[in-house]
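As a next step, the fold was encoded as tokens, giving this record:
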Amino acid sequence: MRHCSVQVRGLLTREELDRYNALMEVGSFLESQNRYDLAYTVQKEVDLLIQPAIERLKDKGRARDKATQEYLEAKEREAMATNEDDKDDE
């Protein structure tokens, strides 16, 4: 069974996390019994379960990128204003 990343697990709701842990336990048991055909089906369920958390992670990344862009633009405006003040003083 393939685990999802720590970042994705951190964004699972309590209900999703409980279901994720249960599915991983079942999948591990099936693999120990060499029932890879059934473990594959469980892995597909896990993949579907974590999709909302992956989207939440992407949204956080987009928000962080937007905040970074706004910060850089503000710094650039500030630098330009400082530059213009220096020219006015001359």
In short: The chain is about 85% helix and 0% strand. The chain has a mean pLDDT of 93. The chain has one domain: 6-89. The two ends are 69 Å apart (CA to CA).
